[in-house]
Design brief:
Length: 740
C-alpha cells in the first residue's frame, strides 16, 4: 500500500462529507491494505469498526482507555487511530504467535502495545542535577544552566515536555528538593546583591572592591543565622552599618521566598497546561521530595506544597505533577515528633512546635496539603525493602540512595547491572496476567472430579499455583522478546534521551548505531490483576475475609517472584513483579471472561477486576486493617505497588487522621501509599468541600469532582472508562477503627 496512492486522496467535491462517505473511504483503504497484507476478514471488520467509532467521536472504553487523554479532540482522535492501527500491526507482524494469542484471548495483557512498533521504553527518573549542570540539548539548540529558581522550575517543566514523546509512560524527578535547591541559593545571592546595591545608592556610596564576587564565594546558604559572619565582613567591606546589612539579608530572603513560591506555582501551572504529549495530553509527571534538610531544599518543598494548596486559577486541584513525599525516620519522621504533634495539634497546625527531626514540620504541611488536594502521596524509606545500605545523611548526593517512585506506582531500585538507585533508570516494559481466569480454569478442571471440599481446595490451589507459574514463564519470555526488539532501536529515535544522558549507567554508546545494552539497567515486570476475584472463585471469599484465600494469593505472588528471579539470573536483567496499575485493563479482562465463561457471581459480575492484591473495594474494612492486610504484598511486588485508603468527609477539618494513617503505613512497612477522599469544587463560586449534588453555596450543578483513578487524579469522571467508573462508584469508605 502506497501512501501517495490516489485512491486514498479525499476530494471534497466528489466525496462529500457524510459518515457513509467516510466509511466508504475507510473500507476502500482497508480493502487495499488487506490485499497487500492478508488478514482474516473479521479482523479488518473489527479494525474498521474501531476507526469509525473514533471518527464519529463515540464514547466507549477504547477511546476512553486513558483518562489523561482528551479523546474527543482532533489530536486525541489522531492518537487513538494511530494506536488502534499500531496495535494491530504489532499483533500481526511483531509478536510471536504464542504471545499474540495469549493477548488476544485475554490470558495476558501486553501494556502499551500501540507503542510496541516504535521500540520505546516506559518511564524514567530524571537526574536534573546532571541535566542542569551541563546544560541540555533540544531539537533547536542547547539550553544553558539555569541561574534563578524561576529558571530552574521552568526548565524542569521543559525537560518533561522535551522528553515525554520519547517514551510511552510517565516521567519523574526522584529528588525535586535536592535538584531545585541550588536555584534558591542563586536567586538569594542575586537578590542580596540588588539589596546591597540599593543601600549603597541610598547612602551615596561606591565601593572600589569587587564585593559582588565575595557574595558568590561567601554566601553558601540562605539561613540568616549561618550568615552572621558574612554580614560582618560585608559591613566592613562596604562601610555600611551592620543593621543595614542585616536588613539587606532579610529582604533578600523574603524576596527569594516569594520568587520560589511563584516558581513552584508556575511549575504546577505549566505541567497542567502544556498539552504537548500525543493525544492532546499533558505530561504524565511525578516528583519525589522530602529528605533535603538544607534551608534551600526546605524552601522548595514548603513552597511547592503551598502552591499546591493554592491550586490553579479558579481553585482547581492540580492533577499533575503527582507528588510523593519521602517519609524517613530521623529526617521527616519520629515517634516522638508524632506524639508531640498529635497531643498539641492546634499548635502543630500553626507551626508553633519545635521537632526533633528537621523536616517533620514539612510532613505536617504535606498532610495539610493532602487534606484539600489529595497530594502528596507517601513513600516510606525505612520499609526494609526500600532501605539502601549506603544511605548516609551527611552525603550531599544521598538522593542516589533513596527509593523514588513513579506516581502510578512503578518502582525501579534494585539493579543487577549497576548501582542500586532509581536515578537515570526506569521500566522497559510490563505485561499482566489475568489471575481470575487462572482461578476459573483451575476450578473448572478440578470440579470434574468427585472430591471432598477439603481435597477440592487442596487440589484446586495446587493447580492454580501451577497455572500462575506457567503464565509467569510465558510473560517472562514475552518480555525478553520485546526487550530484544527494543534493543534494535536506532539511537536517533531518542535524541533527547541520548544526547542528554537521561537513561544513565550505560557504557559509552556514542559510536553505536543501536540502543543495544543502553537499556539493560531498566526493569522488566510481570504484573497481575484481580487477586480478590481469583480468590473469590476458589474460596467463595476474598483474601480480605479469608485467611486461606490470603495465604494462597500471597503464595501466587511468591510464585511470580520465583520465576522473575529465575529469569533475572538467566538473562542478567532486572525482572520483577508489579502490582499492575490497571486502568483500561480493569474492564478488558472482565468483558472477555464474561464472554467466555458467562457471569460468575462475585467473580466477574462487576464491570471490573479489583486492582492487583488490593482488598475488594466493596469490602467494609477499617483503614488500619486494610493497611495491615496489604502491606506484606509490597515486599513481594518490587516492580511497583501502592495501597490506598478511602476516607469520607472533608479531611481539611480532620488532618490528624491523615497523619495517623501515615504513621500506620510507616509502622506496617507499606512501601508506597495514598489517601483518597472526595474533593469537590463548584466551578461557579469556587466553593470547595463535599458537594453531593448541587453546590450548597450557590446551588450550581457545575461541579468538578476530583478522584484518583489509579495513581493519578482526574477532574472529570466522564473521561474514565466504564470499568473504572463502576469501580469508583463501588468504593466503600474505610472506617477509622484503630482497635481492629
Amino acid at each position: 500500500m502506497k501512501l501517495n496512492d490516489k485512491k486514498f486522496l479525499y476530494n471534497k467535491e466528489t466525496d462529500g462529507g457524510t459518515n457513509s462517505t467516510i466509511s466508504s473511504i475507510i473500507s476502500n483503504s482497508f480493502a487495499i491494505f488487506t490485499k497487500e497484507n492478508p488478514l482474516k476478514s473479521y479482523d479488518i471488520d473489527a479494525l474498521k469498526e474501531e476507526i469509525m467509532k473514533i471518527v464519529n467521536v463515540e464514547k466507549n472504553d477504547s477511546t476512553y482507555e486513558n483518562a489523561n487523554m482528551s479523546a474527543d479532540t482532533p489530536a486525541g482522535q489522531m492518537m487513538n487511530m494511530a494506536a488502534t492501527t499500531a496495535k494491530e500491526y504489532a499483533l500481526r507482524f511483531l509478536l510471536s504467535k504464542e504471545y499474540r494469542d495469549a493477548h488476544q484471548n485475554g490470558d495476558i495483557h501486553i501494556h502499551d502495545l500501540d507503542y510496541y512498533p516504535s521500540k520505546t521504553t516506559t518511564c524514567v527518573q530524571y537526574d536534573l542535577k546532571d541535566i542542569f549542570a551541563n546544560g541540555f540539548w533540544t531539537k533547536n539548540g542547547m539550553v544553558r544552566e539555569p541561574q534563578t529558581i524561576q529558571s530552574y522550575a521552568t526548565l524542569a517543566a521543559i525537560v518533561f515536555q522535551s522528553h515525554q514523546n520519547e517514551q510511552h509512560g510517565g516521567q519523574a524527578i526522584p529528588a525535586f528538593d535536592y535538584f531545585l535547591a541550588p536555584g534558591v541559593l542563586k536567586s538569594f545571592r542575586k537578590n542580596l546583591v540588588k539589596q546591597l546595591e540599593f543601600i549603597l545608592k541610598l547612602n551615596n556610596l561606591k565601593s572600589q572592591t569587587n564585593w559582588q564576587a565575595l557574595i558568590q564565594t561567601k554566601i553558601n546558604t540562605i539561613d540568616l543565622q549561618l550568615n552572621k559572619e558574612a554580614q560582618l565582613e560585608i559591613s566592613k567591606l562596604l562601610n555600611l552599618n551592620i543593621n543595614q546589612v542585616k536588613i539587606a539579608f532579610e529582604e533578600a530572603y523574603l524576596t527569594t521566598e516569594k520568587e520560589t513560591f511563584q516558581a513552584m506555582e508556575g511549575f504546577i501551572h505549566n505541567l497542567n497546561t502544556m498539552h504537548s504529549r500525543g493525544g492532546n495530553q499533558v505530561v504524565f509527571s511525578s516528583i519525589n521530595y522530602g529528605t533535603d534538610t538544607s534551608p534551600e531544599g526546605r524552601m522548595v518543598m514548603r513552597q511547592i506544597l503551598l502552591a499546591t494548596q493554592k491550586g490553579l486559577g479558579k481553585n482547581e486541584t492540580p492533577i499533575f505533577p503527582i507528588q510523593i513525599f519521602k517519609v524517613k525516620a530521623g529526617i521527616s519522621y519520629s515517634e516522638e515528633d508524632f506524639n508531640l504533634a498529635i497531643n498539641n495539634w492546634k499548635q502543630a497546625e500553626k507551626g508553633l512546635l519545635n521537632y526533633k527531626t528537621k523536616n517533620f514540620d514539612l510532613l505536617i504541611l504535606a498532610c495539610q496539603t493532602n487534606s484539600t488536594r489529595l497530594f502528596p502521596n507517601f513513600v516510606f524509606l525505612d520499609t526494609p525493602f526500600n532501605k539502601h545500605e549506603n544511605w548516609n545523611p551527611a552525603d550531599p548526593n544521598n538522593y542516589l540512595n533513596e527509593v523514588a517512585t513513579m506516581g502510578c506506582r512503578t518502582r525501579t531500585f534494585e539493579n543487577v547491572n549497576g548501582y542500586k538507585t532509581p536515578v537515570g533508570r526506569g521500566n522497559i516494559s510490563f505485561t499482566t496476567m489475568n489471575l481470575p481466569r487462572l482461578a476459573i480454569e483451575a476450578v473448572k478442571e478440578v470440579k470434574e472430579e468427585n472430591l471432598s471440599y477439603d481435597d477440592f481446595l487442596k487440589k484446586v490451589s495446587a493447580l492454580f499455583l501451577e497455572k500462575v507459574r506457567t503464565m509467569s514463564i510465558l510473560i517472562a519470555k514475552q518480555l525478553k522478546e520485546r526487550f530484544d526488539y527494543q534493543k534494535t532501536a536506532l539511537l536517533k529515535q531518542f535524541p533527547f534521551m541520548v544526547k542528554n544522558n537521561v537513561w544513565k549507567h550505560h557504557k559509552d554508546i556514542s559510536k553505536d548505531e543501536y540502543v543495544g545494552n543502553m537499556i539493560n539497567q531498566g526493569s522488566l515486570t510481570i504484573g497481575f490483576i484481580g487477586g480478590h476475584n481469583a480468590m473469590k472463585m476458589i474460596f467463595g471469599k476474598g483474601h480480605g475475609e479469608s485467611d486461606a484465600a490470603y495465604d494462597l494469593l500471597y503464595q501466587a505472588v511468591l510464585t511470580m517472584n520465583e520465576i522473575a528471579n529465575q529469569y533475572k539470573q538467566k538473562y542478567n536483567l532486572n525482572y520483577s513483579v508489579i502490582a499492575t496499575p490497571a486502568e483500561g485493563l480493569s474492564g478488558r479482562f472482565t468483558r472477555m471472561d464474561v464472554k467466555k465463561y458467562g457471569v460468575i457471581p462475585g467473580v466477574n459480575d462487576s464491570n471490573y477486576y479489583v486492582n492487583s492484591f488490593h482488598v475488594d473495594v466493596k469490602q467494609d474494612i477499617s483503614i488500619f486493617e486494610k493497611i495491615k492486610k496489604e502491606a506484606p504484598f509490597h515486599a513481594i511486588t518490587l516492580g511497583g505497588h501502592i495501597s490506598y485508603v478511602e476516607l469520607d468527609g472533608a479531611m481539611k477539618y480532620n488532618i490528624p487522621v491523615i497523619l495517623k494513617i501515615v504513621k500506620c503505613m510507616f509502622d506496617n512497612n507499606i512501601g508506597y501509599g495514598s489517601i483518597n477522599h472526595p474533593v469537590d469544587v463548584c466551578l461557579e463560586c469556587q466553593f470547595s468541600g463535599i458537594i453531593p449534588h448541587a453546590c450548597d453555596k450557590c446551588q450550581s450543578n457545575n461541579i468538578r469532582r476530583i478522584r484518583r483513578i489509579t495513581g493519578y487524579l482526574t477532574g472529570d469522571l466522564n473521561s474514565w472508562n466504564s470499568a473504572k467508573r463502576s469501580e469508583e462508584h463501588d468504593r466503600v469508605k474505610h472506617g477509622i477503627n484503630e482497635d481492629k
